[in-house]
Amino acid sequence: MSVRKHALRDQVGVEHDRYDVVVVGGGLAGVCAAIAAARAGLRLALVHNRTVLGGNSSSEIRVWVCGATSHGEHHYARETGIMGELFVENQYRNRDGNPYYWDQLLLEKVLAEPGIRLLLGTHVDEVEVEDGDQGRTIVAVGAVMAGSERVFRLEAEQFVDASGDGTVGFLAGARYRTGRESHAEYGEKLAPVEPDDETLGSTILFYVRDAGHPVRYVAPPWAVDIASTSVPTTRYISPAANGCAYWWIELGGDRDVVHDDDQLRLELQGAALGVWDYIKNSGRFDADDLTLEWVGSVPGRREYRRFVGDHTLTEQDILAQAQHSDTVAFGGWSLDLHPRGDLRPGAGLAPRVLGRDLRHPPAGALRPRPREPVGRGP
């Protein structure tokens, strides 16, 4: 008996195309990069593995887009450029913050650029590289549009990895790190004494609404018993709260948030539903007429691979608001650390450390070194 392998690439063929730039990842970084490249006259493909743009800010995950204002902490800080353009237009169209209107705006802005070929629902799973005298160069990426059973080979002069997980750089052999460096390496006061694999975890959010009549809720068996944890005494829970008010529903900081994504999704939904069950059925809230309107099905990841470039942005850079000769952007969200917490019965939650300062990332921090990956460590 013979065994043969049949791949989609072999059955349907591969569509070939060449661009000036290929941007992988359609979150806000990828959207802005694609629009900027198109407005500079370049022809490009924007490849995103979800069917809506926006990444963590999309209607699939619903993380608020706050930017440099940091919820009003910096009264005179505003985005300019493309992100500022998106903010202003969204404020005009979408004062109530409807996440679907935000999806629509991002799609509209991308489709308005004739130089962009948009490939949604398309996952990059191959990278072709060439090693020469000047180092390693990415030649092309391979991608699959699963819902349409289409396969692509996309060549380009330049590639932008805005995937969030560092997929392209990882496959190309770029050097990266995960976890936390030791205090001794960069002299960061908030760093641990010894390096470790701890990261910020993933989160699933939920929204509720008033149905105008009593609504029963029966929690599934996998919902976390929130009353048996420290959550009711350590976190803000309210029937009026929605979305990012529940940022602390976070798991996975002690695991691989990509490899364990499927299991984390079930656990995070169980945590979110446990909070909702506590609101509905603990008797501590006026919640009889409330119903669950939406609960995320895609975990929002906070971090994964960090590519090692010519400059490593450190705690000191951020807190000192260090200026760099090659600064390419700025941000205003806090140095927001909340290492892994635990939602199991009897466990506590992680502390949160804030440092509210503007930061100025340089281009040198965004260009990975062309070396083989080594995981955590120098």
UniProtKB/TrEMBL annotation:
For this UniProt record, give its keywords in alphabetical order, as a comma-separated list: 4Fe-4S, Iron, Iron-sulfur, Membrane, Metal-binding, Oxidoreductase, Transmembrane, Transmembrane helix
Where is the segment annotated Disordered? 346-378
The signal sequence is: none
Q: Which PANTHER family match?
A: COB--COM HETERODISULFIDE REDUCTASE IRON-SULFUR SUBUNIT A (PTHR43498:SF1), FERREDOXIN:COB-COM HETERODISULFIDE REDUCTASE SUBUNIT A (PTHR43498)
Tell me the Pfam families matching this sequence. Answer: FAD_oxidored
| TM helices/strands, residue ranges | 21-42
At the highest ranks, the source species' classification is: Bacteria, Bacillati, Actinomycetota, Actinomycetes, Micrococcales
Q: Which species does this protein come from?
A: Luteimicrobium album
Q: What is this protein called?
A: FAD-dependent oxidoreductase
Comp. bias intervals (Basic and acidic residues)? 369-378
